[in-house]
Amino acid sequence: MHSSRVSEMCIAARGLPGPRVVGRVSAVVGMKLTASGISGAVGIGSRCRVTTTGGTAMDGEVVGVDATGVHVLPFGTWDGIGPGAAVEVVPGGASLRPGPGWIGRVVDPLGTPLDGRGPLPLGPERSVRAAPPPAFDRREVGARIGTGIKALDVFAPLCRGQRMGIFAGSGVGKSTLMSILARRAEADVIVVGLVGERGREVQDIIRNALGPEGMARSVIVAATGDTAPLMRRQAAATATAVAEALRDRGMHVLLMIDSVTRFAQAQREIGLSLGEPPAARGYPPTVFAELPQLLERSGPGAEGQGDITALYTVLVDGDDMNDPVADSVRGILDGHLVLSRRVAERGRYPAVDLERSLSRMLPDCHDAAENAVLGAVRSAIGRYADIEELVRIGAYQTGTDPETDQAIAIAEATERYLAQPREEAVSVDDAFAGLTEILRAAGHPAG
User: What value does the mean pLDDT take over residues 353-357?
Assistant: First the structure.
């Protein structure tokens, strides 16, 4: 009886709250709050709650520690908080408890419901900023996923467990393409991370892009552009953590983060506020350290798990594909889909730039006949690109070179063929059949 009583007391003791650790604000400069008296109880990523004498509270995250104290950034603003305010350490704050009960819900980056439908069912606790899984624990990328979009399925195919970037300037159809992919996704569940988006686009995603049927199998994590940089950065991490939780239950998850650029901009604001030196175009070094930590978390799961197929949008400033963030992301992911303003101005949507888009799953995800068709069409498009200006100004005369004439016929027919209304869905087999017919009509041996 004595042993049993001691065991019960030990279990009860573990359920008691730990000691309260409270310090004081010593300085607030811009977004950065410095606290004293808690250095031994926190580390990077720990959560703190700062309370004014009037009772107003704001949560923050520890982002730096030095001889002056602990540096904390807010999930909102430090309005009304000054020197002497209480800073209490929040135990276990940098974690979430996502699970299947989150499907169909809209949450903020801290896991608080935004849809007014009451509390969220809780799953097992997991870290928001988990490390990517070990490389040798992953399975191989799976089979090709049909999207119904001819330009993607032929020229930059997407496979199960692949991570693809969508690179686009403003106004060239990125949001439209994302909405099409969300509706047609061959996945058990869709997780959408809206990082720094316009407020109106949250409802637009729910009502138009996903619709009732799509929303019933989706989780949306939203942090609009007016939120603090810490919240915007957290949105991408939270969406990834939700996707990981569902993947661990054997589900195939389509993770869509819009956009990685705003994640990087949020990290830039955080880094600069801590005094980091700007490196490439104003981005501090931590931006390029954080990108692989985020992007490598998706992909194929281990044996017995599901997979995370991920789509990350990248806003290309001034259509410059050599932007530091775009260049870094392109080197990490398994492929990139480039939407071109030049193609959009010609009136072809989706405005996929066929020459600059690439899937690293090629050539293995196509069979031999499909690769032959793809190679022939790509070759014709490349040859046409070399003389396009001459053709447009009439400097090239038909009949001068038979192979060039054939390339022009194939490229122009392909351009017309790939124009596709958003409501139209074409199977992969039919997409290749259409291109085979174009090659045949032009007299190409691959037709």
Answer: 93
Cα separation of 71 and 76, whole Å?
A: 15
Give the pair of three-digit tokens for residue 64.
């730096």
CA distance 297 to 203: 28
Domains 19-89 and 368-442 share a fold: no
Query: What's the pTM value of the predicted model, to 2 decimals?
Result: 0.90
Kindly tell me the sign of the dihedral angle through the C-alpha atoms of 296, 173, 351, 210. Answer: positive
Rounded-to-integer distance, Cα 115 and Cα 121, Å = 14
User: Mind listing the pLDDT tens digit for each residue in 428-440?
Assistant: 999 999 999 999 9
The CATH class of 368-442 is mainly alpha
Angstrom distances, CA of residue 259 to CA of 37, 169, 232, 316: 38, 12, 10, 11
| 260-273 vs 229-247: helix crossing angle, rounded to 10 | 130
Q: Summarize pLDDT for 146-174 with one digit per residue, the tens.
A: 999 999 999 999 999 999 999 998 878 88
Cα torsion 410, 175, 220, 125 to 10°: value is: 60
- CATH code reported for the domain at 19-89: 2.40.10.170
For residue 390, give the H/E element and its range.
helix 368-392
Radius of gyration of the chain from its Cα atoms, rounded to whole angstroms? 26
CATH class in words for 95-359: alpha beta
pLDDT, tens only, 304-324:
899 999 999 998 876 677 889
User: Is it the case that residue 32 has pLDDT exceeding 90?
Assistant: yes
Dump pLDDT digits (tens) for 256-289.
999 899 999 999 999 999 889 988 888 999 999 9
How far, CA to CA in Å, does 190 sit from each of 6, 142, 221, 313?
Answer: 47, 18, 11, 15
Domain spans in the chain, listed from the N-terminal domain onward: 19-89, 95-359, 368-442
Distance CA 22, CA 59 (A): 14
Give the DSSP per-residue string, 213-265. HHHTTEEEEEEETTS-HHHHHHHHHHHHHHHHHHHTTT-EEEEEEE-HHHHHH
Whether the pLDDT of residue 303 is over 70: the answer is yes
Asked if residue 292 lies in contact with residue 345, where contact means CB atoms within 8 angstroms, the answer is: no
